[in-house]
Amino acid sequence: MSPDNHSRIPELYVSREAAEALKHDAGNMPGWDLTARQICDLELLMNGGFTPLKGFLTEADYNGVVENMRLTSGALWPMPITLDVSQAFADGIEPGTDIALRDHEGVILAVMSVTDKWTPDKAREAEKVFGADDLAHPSVNYLHHSAGPVYLGGPVKGLQPPTHYDFRGRRDTPNELRALFKKLNWQRVVVFQTRNPLHRAHQELTFRAAREAQANLLIHPVVGMTKPGDVDHFTRVRCYEAVLDKYPAATTALSLLNLAMRMAGPREAVWHGLIRKNHGATHFIVGRDHAGPGKNSQDRDFYGPYEAQDLYRQHQAEIGVEMVDFKHMVYVQERAQYEPADEIEDGVTVLNISGTELRRRLREGLDIPEWFSFPEVVKQLRRTSPPRAQQGFTVFFTGLSGSGKSTVANALMVKLMEMGGRPVTLLDGDVVRKHLSSELGFSKEHRDINIKRIGYVASEITKNGGIAICAPIAPYTATRRAVREMVEAGGAFVEVHVATSLEECERRDRKGLYKLAREGKIKEFTGISDPYEEPLRPELRIDTSDIDVDSAAHEVLLTLESMGLIGLN
Ligand code: PPS
Questions:
Q1: Which in 64, 206, 337, 545 has the greatest CB count within 10 A?
Q2: Where in the numbering of this chain does the APS kinase domain appear (predicted)?
Q3: Region 497-526 average pLDDT
Q4: Catalytic site residues?
């Protein structure tokens, strides 16, 4: 009998003929345009990566998963895989309807027979799955601000996988990996999950893990969705490829996993184990703070450093993949090698570069020593992250109408143009409303659309090495955060709160709008009859009642300089 990790697992794809017929019928079905995250989930549902799931969770399965990590069948499953949709779409769907699931281009990837439709309690989902209903957690933020309000559940029939144009040869379905392991006769396979570039410490750790488990090694990085702000997967894959030949020949393989991570720490570790079981793993490396989301809104870690290992250990037998616990590896200078931190005697020199320190060195173009990483990896990282003074960035002014945003933004633009070096674009509130958002009003919904348009343009300018200066009111914290995330994917985001008081703005009343707002002639006026949520941690706060325009613009320049974005001489 072939070992467990060599046999095929069930997929949700239908036969070619059935797919042709279904595709034909699907033309008349209601069609749902999948989000980027749903496309990742659907791919792993269809190719068996999420076995035993047969589709997006039903309400009963969802409740079981949220409450105690179990499907109604009793099987262990820690993560809600749900099809969240808009209220408008949900209103047109009743259980019993078949819907077509489409990718970004409208291609039908699957048909789902809707059996369940419900409005989830998102606060409960956040508490149970992520441990806290705290928006500092990227998935809680996604749940409340990106995911639709209604969930649909039901079995899925797969027509075709999503198309990937990048790194095709490096992407494998669970059955493709199982077939590879069978061909190579790899009966013990230890998997390393990662969302970061591999440096020497990781190489040493994975190599040791494979030796300890007497197994072959599969480097299995996530290329679907990771934590906002991570190194993009194109760069990472080039880095992984560069490291591959540092392993003993024929012991190690690299395969890309199109998973949308949730950064759910302990639950995520269990989920990763189950997914890797499906991909033919027999062992799985779980590190310190596995899939950790960073700090919560009280600046504390969401999960304890070994919570993920503990939860995994409790469920290890059921997962069916043995955990290899990650040792924290550090470099011992005297012996010129990496060793587990807990095995090192006193008195030796231990060297370590944190992720934050690495980003600083890249940003400032400083040396990254060879004991820390491989020159090929550093070369790739430097290509993607040139020193900050050569990258694009966005300065995002926010504040009340009449606070002085536009005036300071204009002065800043001129000063940056005088310095030269990078193209500068000013996206002033009024200008944007004229050219990009002329049809929009001032409801929350319209303001959010307006700010997201500005954010989109600013992120494109930033990504392409320019400077975008934005000066809208942008009254909502969550929307400003969404813009920050968009921009930071391609460069720095500098939030400047123009904190001139309402009294002062009203006293100036440059456009006469406050008077009209007080008289009720303008509705939903920010500060008078509409909210303004103050930024809690902007990069800079200025009050134009205290300083003149020149000094305010200079303060912004000093902030840019302290962040390494410009040189002031
Ligand atoms: S938002 O909330 O960010 O979308 O607003 P923004 O695009 O910056 O537009 C603000 C400018 O529109 C004028 N205006 C109003 N502001 C706030 N509330 C209401 N109801 C409103 N109606 C018109 C106002 O001149 C703002 O310009 P600034 O430059 O901020 O004074």
A1: 206
A2: 391-543
A3: 95
A4: 194-196
